[in-house]
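A quick aside before the break. I want you to see a complete sequence-to-structure record at least once, exactly as it would be stored in a machine-readable document. Don't worry about memorizing anything.
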Amino acid sequence: METEVVFEDPRAVLELALHLQNVTFPEPGEYRLQLFSGSTPLMERRLVLLKIERAEGHE
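That is the input. The structure line, written in tokens, reads:
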């Protein structure tokens, strides 16, 4: 996903919440969420995904 935000002040702080829909991962494991400004990395967060089995009778 890519979006553009314009800052009038380069020292400005922005809070950002992402609502991701229909995102799939090929398998459980470790993934990284990365935030860039142009080609400059700003931050990275590690995501650890686990597979959760549904109990019988629950959909």
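Two observations worth writing down. The chain has a mean pLDDT of 86. The beta strands are 29-37, 40-49. We'll return to this after the break.
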